[in-house]
Amino acid sequence: MDKYGKLADDPYEISLTFVLERVLYELDSRESTEITDIVIESRGKREDQTLAQRYNELLYKGSSQVSSNRFVSRFNQEIFFKRKSENDIGLQIADLCAYPVARHVLYPTVPYPSFEVIEPKFRKGPKGINGHGLKIFP
Q1: Residue 81's beta-bridge partner residues?
Q2: Stretch 96-108: mean pLDDT, rounded?
Q3: 3-state secondary structure 33-58
Q4: CA angle, 81 as apex, 11 and 98 as ends, to 5°?
Q5: C-alpha to C-alpha distances, 83 to 12, 86, 95, 109, nearest whole angstrom
Q6: Would you call 27 helix, strand, or coil by DSSP?
């Protein structure tokens, strides 16, 4: 937790950091040069502003793992927020994946068919998805 400082206090901010790092690593592995849009489900004006501020910090200051130049070269300068009522397909898919992933993290030895369906889609390293496509904090 010392590594992330005050950021560790906000799970949404630290999750944004981890997700963007993993997206960037995946784009690197695909040798993609395209700029990627980031779309997040809106949680309210103040919360959205906090995440937008964190997004800008990542773009212009980087993270403990990724330089600002790498973030800027991969991601749109603007972050997009969508309300749940907009029924964005990408956000719906993220919602469908969240519970199976959480269940896998909480009960890793218990088989869960829904997680088994999505697990092959995770980014993998030499030892599997942990730390690569799935990052558990702390």
Answers
A1: 40
A2: 96
A3: CCCEEEEEECCCHHHHHHHHHHHHHH
A4: 50
A5: 16, 5, 13, 35
A6: helix
Cα separation, 57 vs 74, whole angstroms: 15
pLDDT tens, residue by residue, 74-94: 999 999 999 999 999 999 999
The string of pLDDT tens digits covering residues 46-60 is 999 999 999 999 999
Task: List the one residue out of 108, 113, 114 whose CA is nearest residue 128.
Answer: 108
Q: Which residue is it, tokens 């993220």?
A: 94
Tokens of 72: 């800027």
Residues 6+ apart with CB under 8 A from 118: 97, 100, 101
63-97 CB burial, b ≥16 within 10 A, e <16: beebeeebbeebbeeebebeeeeeebeebeeeeeb
| Contact residues for 82 (Cβ-Cβ < 8 A; gap 6+) | 39, 40, 41, 42, 88, 91
